[in-house]
Write a structure and sequence with these properties.
Length: 504
């Protein structure tokens, strides 16, 4: 057996510095890896030899990539080429478009931990119009409100948690709590930045979607991204231009929706329930139990299902407990939990949506932001008596939104705040719901997403009580485990503070 590290992420500045010192090379491209791996199925040579040939004949490798991807339709070859991108100065609103691509990785500037400055994006659709001044003035008012709220919230948080505040090491934490609540008054136009890791296949999809997008900032971002990789990897990003499917499909669907549903359906009358379980797999406990038995036996699924249908809730629970017995808080429940699904309609703030969309193994779609759905106001803002001030800014924001929306609806949402809401539809399997709950119901999670995830699990446990008996935030894992097994879970030495070891 041989295992060879074929490549890894290297800072492009390092590569350029090497070329400046040693001379330009044309094989510093991820295309040689995708070309080499594409040949594995038909070339008997060891992979490292195939890679060597690909590096020595870059133009031939590029032609090979184009042939395999374009003519043969083997787009997965492009997944072997990976890019790391710094994306700076993009609005929070457009960041949502960027992070829709779930087979990518993102680390974004956090408005919870960083004190916001006054940088924002004025959309090109608004620049030079009569709305530009009122847009900029409204952003300025929101930003001033942010700093005013932050100072008052910081004083409140330090006073409320005086025991923590007594230790200077906790000051950053407490200031972070103030920041995360103050940011609810800042706009979606606020600038942000993100580090993105993406393979070429997903990059191509992103570029095509962005080229087809009606918003100028999205199209400009797509063009800027393409410029960065056009010379480095021309053979593996081929279908990157705008197309009719991405440009026209949802416009046509909107027309169909108006025709079929009527305009009156767009009222916000259903805003009484923030999290609603609207679809779920019936008999989920029995199904997952059958899936677990199927994996652990030689019986067909139908045979296992016929047995679990007749089992009591107590007997089904024994099967689940066998699956959980050796779990730690960082372990995922078995993959068999993916065979059932739950769909939720959620009304949530922009601040909360920014966290929910991180769960990319789910299926998540959403409507646009709608001021009629109201606003999520942090409890701390109410506690310091600043709710009237907060809502005064929101009311002014809504007025500016309405004015812009009449003439430039595509750009109007930029002015809305992190507190404004939208409707999202999310479908998860039970395994992903466990992950969401473990991460987002933990006491260290932000309160807004805590509330949403807690409501999701509460709704789910009503219809799937057996398979969700171990669900909860990771801070409560030991307590929940003990309630089921009568003892605490074994704690691996590696996860204890100061005990992490690496085997030599």
């Amino acid at each position: 057996m041989r295992v060879i590290l074929a490549g890894y992420n290297v800072d492009n500045a390092v590569l350029k510095d090497m070329q400046d010192k040693a001379g330009k090379r044309n094989d510093l491209t991820p295309e040689v890896l995708s070309a080499a791996y594409a040949r594995i199925s038909r070339d008997p040579r060891p992979i490292d030899e195939i890679r060597k040939s690909a590096r020595e004949e870059v133009e031939r490798s590029r032609k090979s990539n184009a042939t395999i991807i374009f003519n043969m339709g083997h787009h997965s070859v492009a997944e072997h080429a990976v890019f790391n991108l710094d994306i700076i100065g993009v609005s929070r609103y457009v960041m949502e478009e960027l992070e829709k691509f779930r087979l990518c990785s993102y680390t974004e500037k956090s408005q919870r931990y960083i004190t916001l400055d006054k940088d924002f994006v004025t959309p090109k659709e608004i620049k030079g119009t009569r709305f530009e001044k009122i847009f900029v003035d409204m952003i300025a008012a929101q930003n001033e409100a942010y700093f005013k709220l932050y100072e008052k919230l910081k004083e409140h948080v330090f006073s409320k948690h005086s025991e923590l505040a007594a230790n200077a090491k906790n000051h950053n934490l407490l200031e972070g709590w103030a920041k995360e609540d103050a940011r609810y008054i800042t706009s979606l136009a606020t600038e942000s930045q993100v580090g993105q890791t993406i393979n070429a296949r997903n990059f191509e999809l992103l570029l095509r979607r962005f080229a087809s997008h009606p918003l100028m900032e999205v199209r400009d971002l797509g063009s800027a991204l393409f410029e960065q990789i056009a010379e480095v990897a021309p053979s593996i990003v081929i279908f990157h231009e705008a197309n009719d499917f991405d440009k026209n499909t949802f416009d046509q669907l909107k027309k169909a929706a108006v025709e079929i549903l009527g305009q009156e359906i767009q009222s916000a009358a259903e805003n009484s329930q923030q999290v609603k379980l609207v679809e779920f797999t019936p008999n989920a406990d029995s199904i997952v139990a059958a899936c677990l038995l199927h994996t652990a036996s030689s019986f067909s699924y139908e045979q296992c299902r016929a047995v679990t249908e007749k089992l009591s809730a107590v007997e089904l629970k024994k099967i689940f407990m066998s699956a959980w017995k050796n779990m730690q808080f960082y372990d995922s429940v078995p993959r068999e939990f993916e065979y059932i699904g739950l769909t939720y309609n959620i009304v949530l703030s922009s601040a909360c949506f920014g966290q929910l969309k991180r769960h990319r193994m789910s299926t998540l779609t959403s409507q646009g932001y709608d001021p009629h759905l109201g606003n999520t106001i942090p409890l701390a803002i109410k506690e310091i008596g600043m709710e009237p001030f907060f809502m005064e800014i929101v009311d002014k924001t809504n007025k500016v939104y309405e004015d812009i929306n009449k003439e430039i609806p595509i750009a109007a949402p930029y002015i809305l705040t992190n507190s404004h809401r939208k409707r999202a539809l999310i479908k998860v399997n039970a395994r992903e719901l466990y992950h969401i709950s473990r991460l987002r119901e933990d006491t260290h999670a932000q309160w807004d997403i805590q509330n949403i995830s807690r409501a999701m699990t509460e709704e789910a446990k009503k219809v799937m009580p057996g398979l969700l008996a171990l669900i909860g935030g990771k801070d409560r894992y030991a307590q929940i485990y003990k309630s089921l097994f009568g003892q605490m879970p074994k704690v691996a030495e590696a996860v204890l503070p100061g005990k992490r070891k690496i085997k030599s």
